[in-house]
Amino acid sequence: MPYIHLDAIDLKILDALQKDGRLSNSDLSDIVGLSQSPCLRRVKRLEKEGFITSYRAILDREAVGLSLTVFAAFRLKSATPEAAEEFEQRLTALPQVITCHMLSGDSDCLAEIVAPSVAAYQAFLTEHLRALPHVRDIRSNIALKRVKSETPMPLAHIKRPLDGPDC
């Protein structure tokens, strides 16, 4: 595994901000055991180096009327890079698509889609998804229950200079 240039304090900062991106610098510095100025410098460095890409509010899906989650698996007609890129651009431009992964295996793409109801998803499927370029077929799976979502990234795998190789 390549060495990632993060020390124990950097990892504490990342962990704390993943759990609560609204932490004040004062509270964050208390959590990680630094004074405020060095803590803020580290946060700015982590942002600049791309470890922290953004901050946002996570909305309750039901509260905003998007209680239906559908996982749509797509198979494409063509495997050319141009076809895949055009498909990706058109699919990811749809605001109802909240995550999208290109895959190997039986499907070429898996998209997580939110909608207010089954009827709304059916209309979205008919009007938008079936109109996407290069689509051979779409398999829709309706989520019955969200068990885990919006969780922080695990960071225990990151090796620091004093860590030895895996045993």
Describe this structure in words.
The chain has 167 residues and is of the alpha+beta class. Among the domains are: 8-48, Winged helix-like DNA-binding domain superfamily/Winged helix DNA-binding domain (Arc Repressor Mutant, subunit A); 68-142, Lrp/AsnC effector binding domain/regulation of amino acid metabolism (RAM) domain (Alpha-Beta Plaits), CATH 3.30.70. The chain is 34% helix and 18% strand. The protein has helices spanning 8-19, 25-32, 36-48, 81-92, 118-129, and strands spanning 68-76, 97-102, 109-115, 135-142. It is elongated. Residues 163-167 have low confidence and may be disordered.
Brief write-up:
With 167 residues, the chain is of the alpha+beta class.
Keywords:
34% helix; four-stranded antiparallel beta sheet; elongated; 167 residues; 5 helices; alpha+beta; Alpha-Beta Plaits; Arc Repressor Mutant, subunit A
CATH topology assignment of the domain at 68-142: Alpha-Beta Plaits
Number of helices: 5
Shape: elongated
CA radius of gyration: 21 Å
Strand residue percentage: 15-25%
Largest sheet: 4 strands, antiparallel
**Assembly of the depicted chains:** single chain
pLDDT < 50 runs, ≥5 residues:
163-167
The beta-strand count equals 4
Q: Which CATH architecture of the domain at 68-142 is right?
A: 2-Layer Sandwich
